[in-house]
Design brief:
single chain; 319 residues; alpha/beta; Nucleotidyltransferase, domain 5; 2 domains; five-stranded mixed β-sheet; 11 helices; globular
Length: 319
Amino acid sequence: MAVRGGIDLGGTKIQAIVVEEGTQPLGANRIPTPKQGGPPAVAEAIADALRAAALEAGMQPSDLAGVGVGSPGSIDNEAGTVTRALNVSPEWSGSFPLRDELRSRLDGAAIRLGNDVRVGTLAEVRLGAGRDRGSLIGVFWGTGVGSGVILDGKPWGGRGAAGEIGHMVVRLGGRTCTCGRQGCVEAYAGRKAMELRARKMVDHGSHTKLFEIMEERGREQLTSGIWARALEHEDKMATHLIDQAVAALAAGIASAVNLLDVEAVVIGGGLGTRLGEPYVERIRNEMQPHLFRDDRPPEVVGSALGDLGGALGAALLVG
């Protein structure tokens, strides 16, 4: 196979890889997602990360067959734009010509765009935990909550917005989501929404070690690692919010399974990968009461590709 670049664009980090085949990158680089400067600053950071990954592989961006980018938001491949990637930047409310901006910064390299969770799911199907599965849902639990859907061995995108499991309603009139609607899975399980909730609870007098750990680590956000550390310290607020997240995820995923009757569910994303099998098992168990066919539940497994899954899936966009 040709050597390709892959970019996983997330709310807290940009993961860049250069890969030829399989799952072992020739070069890799990971940097924080810029919080200032909007989409142009993000595009520059993507280019910087890819250059560094290519350099580690002994190459230049122009040597690559192409670069795939998995991004949140609405993707228009024909126009080369990404729209409403609000989990990446609050300034990314409109459309941004990410393909052309990256092409100009990366020596004219061919750029392919894809939705981050769909390419992550594609990677699990071809290279990871979803191999030999005709149907599955890939659930990515991180800054937000998204999913990719595979039916009859093929990705299902609907009219362009299929897989928004984070915006399935699990509580009528429930907590306001970062999307502005109420009662979404993401309002309870998205890391961004959980941080907003934690800050509100602190303002009302609750105590937590979450923000102390954040300051100790020099972070500006509650990353997956910070949540994991707080849980290790048995922090009551972190435990409470993660418990709510697991319950919301279980209800949302079970509802999707009731609709599609897939063979398997793969749990990935920043939080899903960091918290690992104990929390995959909790989600699996808490799904059970919500399943219509509880006598034959789908297999629920953790991602086999971990943090590199999104970037590997993005590289697969390059033919």
